[in-house]
Amino acid sequence: MDARGPSGPFDYLAEYFTDHPRLLFHLQILPPLLFVFSFVFIPLGSIFAWSFWSVQNNRLVPSFSTSAYADFLGIGYSPWRFDIFLKTLRIAVTQTLIALVLGFAIAYFVGMKMRGSRYALPLLLLFAVPFLTSYLLRSLSWRVVLQTEGLINLILEGLGITSAPIKWLLFSEFAVHVGLLSTYLPFMVFPIWLAMSRIDQNVLAASADLGGKPRDTLFRVVIPLTLPGMLIGSIFVFVGVLGDSVVPKLLGGPTDGSGKLVANLIDEAVSGAQYPLAAAMASVILLMAVGLIVGWEKIFGLKKIGEI
Q1: Domain annotation covers residue 70
Q2: Cβ distance 284 to 202 under 8 Å?
Q3: Does residue 132 belong to any structural domain of this protein?
Q4: What pTM, to 2 d.p., does this model score?
Q5: Contact of 69 with 277, CB cutoff 8 Å
Q6: Does some domain include residue 111?
Q7: I want to staple 184 with a disulfide (CB 3.0 to 4.6 A). Which of 88, 192, 237, 284 is the partner?
Q8: For residue range 131-142, what is the model confidence (pLDDT) as tens digits?
Q9: Residue 282 class from Cβ within 10 Å (0-12 exposed, 13-18 middle, 19+ buried)?
Q10: Quick check: is 34 in a domain?
């Protein structure tokens, strides 16, 4: 039977792309690249550009000025915004460390101690239940728990531990930490658990057969293999805290600045039509997030993400 050539336009295209696989690859990757470029890079680039513009009659006017960055960093201006930024960094680092310790413990219990149990996955999914409700309602619910007549004070007074309500439970940095932890802890638990679930049981058995104690297995086997999940979870929590404005506003206290984080400053700048200032603060946070990703690449390589 004679070989038949292409009989239609699609056959010609199939034959052409077979001979030019690189062109086919470029055509396949072009739509997602255009989507990411249009809806991610252009908006982020616009924010960075606006940080150098000026405002006239509540409208952004193209220009080049670094006054927004000087205002934010306190160069020639009052440094109170930069002080809040430093406080935000401190809270973000502290929150990341707390979430890392608690998240690792929870993931270790579910992923290692309860491995193979039918209750492991339902227990883990409990951390996703709060996300079925509004973020605003979840944050407001902590007021009921932490206020002077809230659940914790009622229990403490009922048990005779305290004779008067503890007032610093609400509208304080402690309350901000509690609200942020309840929000971002799942973002630490799930990546760590996913990394742990990929650890071969034979590796753990080999460690025990070689005389490794549980502590040795934890620090020399489990933690190194779980490190990618720990780092990704830390980035999620750290960047999330930097951009959170709801929890500090609802639980952080008075409006004199003591309960604010940098995201609240961005909200206020936008409300006051200080768009370059808001863009400058957002750009600094964005550059920090990019720096974390670049640091990941330099130290571990992005291919480590595939190990989770």
Answers
A1: no
A2: no
A3: yes
A4: 0.85
A5: no
A6: yes
A7: 237
A8: 888 888 888 899
A9: buried
A10: no
Please tell me the distance from the alpha carbon of residue 232 to that of residue 226, in angstroms, as a whole number.
Answer: 10
C-alpha angle 27-28-31 in degrees, rounded to nearest 5: 85
H or E element that contains 56: strand 54-56
**Predicted confidence (pLDDT) at residue 114 exceeds the cutoff of 50:** yes
Measured CA to CA, the distance from residue 250 to residue 232 in angstroms comes to: 28
Half-sphere CA count of 4, side-chain side, radius 13 A: 5
Contact (CB, 8 A) for 80 and 296: no
- The total domain count for the chain is 1
Q: With a cut of 60, say whether residue 306 has pLDDT above it.
A: no
Query: Under a CB-based contact definition with an 8 Å cutoff, are residues 154 and 132 in contact?
Result: no
The encoded tokens of residue 55 equal 């405002």
Distance of CA 239 to the CA centre of its chain: 4
pLDDT at 301 over 90: no
**Which residue shows structure tokens 């890392």?**
100
CATH number at residue 148: 1.10.3720.10
Tell me: pLDDT of 60 over 80: yes
Model confidence at 1, in pLDDT bands (50, 70, 90)? very low
CA distance 128 to 136: 16
In order of 16, 56, 196, 261, the CA distances from 221 in angstroms are 50, 60, 10, 38
199 or 2, greater pLDDT: 199
Tokens 């291919």 correspond to what residue? 303
What is the C-alpha R_g of the chain? 26
